[in-house]
Every structure is written in structure tokens, then in C-alpha cells.
Design brief:
- It is built from eight helices and 14 strands.
- The protein is of the alpha+beta class.
- The longest helix has 19 residues, at about 1-20.
Amino acid sequence: ALVILAATGWIAAARWLAQHRPAWAARLHALPAAVRWGLVVGGLTLHTLSYHPHYLAYYNPLFGGGQVAARLIPIGWGEGLEQAAAYLNSLPDGCQHATATWFNPVLSAFACGPVIRLPEPLGLGRVEYAVLYIDQLQRANAPNATALIQQQGSAVYTVTLHGIPYATVYHLPQPLAQQPDAIFGGQIRLQGVELVRMSDALSLTTQWQALTPIAQDFSLFVHVLDAQGNRVSQIDVPPAGPDRPTSMWPTGHFQYWRHPLPLPPDLDPGAYWLAIGLYDPATFARLPVAGASPPAPDAPPHDADVLLLRGE
């Protein structure tokens, strides 16, 4: 049946060529039969070679090709995961990041970092990346973990083979105590914050995300305010550490950093607040803040263009 269907397609193509390109049809008809068959075989060979090295991604174009196959049948035997691994390996410290995936034996053969099988590690902050594969999605393997990855993760890379999205790499945020989701200048999102009080300092952990490509290197300021709005401590630092200026942040990825905030030794006990913002160190112009919840009614007086968070 498939041979008959293929022959029908060739006949239809020949008729179309005769009607719409008669000059070409005449030239082809003038060629010896062996040459015409050679052109047919050569065309089929070139078409097949175009799928190298992923021959399993080939689906009969007479039936709609891969786009239709992806909707009707489970596809994917691990092809494309080598490209996902190459992307993970290329990231800064890529060999130190743990990745979760359903097809861990295949991905671990190419990834230089540790690979953990879904769904065990999710929700524990054990992994930074996850790879979802098309066959896993079609069969609904690990549905809860998949939903968590798609809802909370950021899709940063997709492997597409001949029009089929085979694998998607997600960067996962680390579980921090607060999620302010404040957006600075429409470019940078503060996704998470965690504050730990020590004897003579505060430890502020921040998690940022570049929403668009960033051309400038912005600085972070953190002011510690008392209940009257007086500044009792402050830091001005790169938001993700000295080795990751904002101009180097890839879009969609999360940037995680811990900032120590020294406190005066004679600081009185009481309620304190953090005023967080970003600015251009060349002009000291602050980025406007959007998306965050309004400060609590008992918040102290504070400057504009800051995110105000209650301290511990």
C-alpha cells in the first residue's frame, strides 16, 4: 500500500511539473531513462542524508512528517539529548550543576555534570537544571514533577530536530523564603530573597533573573533601615557577585548570590527593614521597580525606586 501511495505521489508531481513547468518537463523527458532514475535516487539519498545523524527523526512526509507524528504517536529514542548535554556543559561551571531528567542514562552519557532521575530530587533544591523530553511528555511520565518544572522553571534552551522540539532545558529557581517577584527597569526580576540573622551581620541571599539581554553592568544597593527610616547599614555590590556582571547574564537564567551585611555592634533590638534597588554606577540613576507588593502599613519612610522588605 505504501508503494502504491508513493507511486501516486510521483505521478502527481510529474503531472504538476508538466502543467506548471512545461519547459522543465520537456528537458527531463529528453534525458535518458538512466539519468532520470539517477536524479530520483540521488534526490531521495540527499533527503535521507539531511537527517544525519538523527535518522530516527525521519517520518514519512506523505503522512505529514514529524509534525503530524508528534501528535499521533510517541516519538524519541534519546536523539537530541546529546545537544541538550552540550548546552549544559557549555554553561559557566556547567560540570558542577546537577540536572534532573527522566531519561537519565542517555543524558548522563553526554553530560559532564551529575544527572539525577526525575522525579526524586525536585522540591529539595538539589538540582539547578531539568531536561524534559518529548517521549516523556507524550507518555505523561512523572506528571507532578513535569508540571512543577514547567510552572516554576525557565525554559532556556530547546533542541529542535527537523521541526520537532525533542528536548527542553529548564533552569530551576532555588527555594528561598520570600518570592517578591519585583521587576527592575523591565529587565531584571528579583525572584527570591532569604535573610538570616547572625550575631554581627545579616546574610542576604538573592536570586535574580534576566528577562531581556542586558547591555549595562548594574549595581545592587541594600540599605538596612530602622523603624524611623534611618539607615543603619548598607552595601553596594554587583547583584550576582564580582564574577557575574549583569551584562553577562544569559536571558532566562537565574543568578544566585549570598551577600553579607555587617551590622553595628551597638545596634538596638527592634524592627528593621531592607530597602533593595538597582542602579547604574556611572550615573547613579536607579531602575524603577514594578510588580512587588506594596509595603506594609508600618513600613518606615524610604526612598523611591526601592523594594522594601521586612527584616528579621
